[in-house]
Automatic annotation (TrEMBL):
Residue intervals of the HTH marR-type domain: 11-146
Protein name: MarR family transcriptional regulator
Domain of life where this protein originates: Bacteria
PANTHER family xrefs: CONSERVED PROTEIN (PTHR39515), HTH-TYPE TRANSCRIPTIONAL REGULATOR RV0880 (PTHR39515:SF2)
Entry keyword Transcription: yes
Alphabetized GO MF terms: DNA binding; DNA-binding transcription factor activity
The entry's keywords: DNA-binding, Transcription, Transcription regulation
Tagged with keyword DNA-binding: yes
Taxonomic lineage from the root: Bacteria, Bacillati, Actinomycetota, Actinomycetes, Kitasatosporales
Length: 148
């Protein structure tokens, strides 16, 4: 594990560069959305549901790092837009289970297709060495995205 706590100029510069690049790329990717009426948080919740198929609002709140009352509001908005449904929890009648609708699945698929096409177009501007480095970095960036 790298030691970044000593304020080493090279590590500080690398961390700063990584942060800046990831934020710029993220902002540009957000502009490739299919449905502009959804917030980035709403899209993220749909993406999480796509990966886990269903979850309680509390589980979604933990996964999305938001407070449970906020997730309750987000789920209500998504339900009103026809993108999720609430069903009774199989083991706990006090809870509900959130699942995405077919409409949400189709929207997410189109969003992924559009964003992938946009990134592929950008990647065409890279040389083979840059593309190989980016492919190698993808799993590391994925790991960073899921560390707490």
């Amino acid at each position: 594990m790298p030691d970044l706590s000593h304020g080493d100029a090279i590590d500080t510069a690398a961390v700063n560069s990584l942060r800046s690049a990831v934020m710029r790329l993220s902002r540009r990717l957000k502009h490739q959305r299919v449905d502009e009426s959804l917030s980035p948080t709403e899209m993220s919740v749909l993406g999480t549901l796509s990966m886990c198929s269903s979850a309680t609002p509390g589980e979604l709140a933990r996964k999305e790092h938001v407070q449970p009352p906020s997730m309750t509001r987000i789920v209500a908005l998504l339900e009103a837009k026809g993108l999720v449904r609430l069903e009774p929890h199989p083991d706990d009648r006090r809870q509900k289970v959130v699942t995405q609708t077919e409409r949400a699945e189709a929207m997410l698929e189109e969003s992924r297709r559009r964003r992938n096409a946009w990134l592929a177009t950008l990647a065409e501007g890279l040389d083979e060495d840059e593309w190989a480095k980016l492919r190698a970095a993808a799993p590391v960036l994925e790991k960073l995205a899921h560390l707490s």
